[in-house]
């Protein structure tokens, strides 16, 4: 293992990424990081996996916290909660079938 080479490549990668150690903080950085990730996934090779592992967490954090995504995130969370409630109701109705002997009151 050539640790000097790995350190050099890590520094080069950090210099070329569109965001710093603090992550993505502007819409411009987000757009640039997303464009890089899309390019890597459009022409996906296993060797790109490590780069995607570096890019996706900051992209996800930005999407989770940026003001321009607040309304979408709130609608998504509400929809997800409603879907879970529907799934539980479906399971309860299935378990309440006469041929299934399960006490569902504690679910």
Helices, strands, pairings?
Layout: H1 3-16, H2 27-42, H3 49-65, H4 70-95
Can I get a quick summary?
The chain is mainly alpha-helical and 107 residues long. The chain is built from four helices and no strands.
Describe this structure in words.
This protein is mainly α. It contains four helices and no strands. Helix 2 runs antiparallel to helix 3 (49-65).
Helix/strand structural class: mainly alpha
What value does the average pLDDT take?
85
Query: What is the number of beta strands?
Result: 0
Straight-line N-to-C gap: 53 Å
Keywords:
107 residues, single chain, mainly alpha
